[in-house]
Amino acid sequence: MALVGAMVLSTVAFAARPFEPPAELPTSAPPQGLTAYEVLSSDARPTEGGEAVLADHGTAPLADRAAFSVSRSADRAPLGCSGIVTETGPNGRLPDSALCDLWQAPFRDRPDAVVALFELNDAFRAAFGSDMCLSSAYRDFEEQLALDARKGGLAAPAGASNHGWGLAIDLCESAYTGERGRWLHDVGPIFGWENPDWAHAGGAGPFEPWHWEFADAVAALETRGAS
Fold this sequence. Notes:
Layout: H1 2-9, H2 36-40, H3 61-67, E1 100-101, E2 108-109, H4 111-128, E3 134-136, H5 141-151, E4 168-171, H6 173-176, H7 178-187, E5 193-194, E6 211-214, H8 215-224
């Protein structure tokens, strides 16, 4: 999984409080190729091997993630998920091949988001002895419509939710409250996952401490005006 971890670093520029790095850090360079923006754009094309590789955006976060590195057995890895974005689609209409399974069925998200989330979950499990409990991840268009109807407009309109891009999760209360919630706010951004500012108390949107997003990929979409 070391190679996959290095590839995921290409999509994420993290903003988090500093952590003491270990004495030795990996020195191999991450793979080069398409940027996250290019993969998300309609003009992105796969490489000759059929896979669009995300380019490096700097290796500084490697120290922070290495400080939280956890040995992972093969059965804990995201099965069959390379972490490379090769396909996209409209919000809520992503093909099955554009999604990877998370550890808790039936939840899935985009490959780069999933690999980073598995790494965060490894660190969470090492700290607390259990996986992060999920209550939602990717939502297709119909699921977004149904939720919008139930929530009376409190949910994002169908086709505008970051769940529909495979870049968001909702957590169970046990994962986002108390000591675990404080830990996630400190450590989550190291792995690219954040509870966005709008979801904080007093933020621009509804208070949703359970809602977490793969931040830099969401920012790339917002830059394009896709969400």
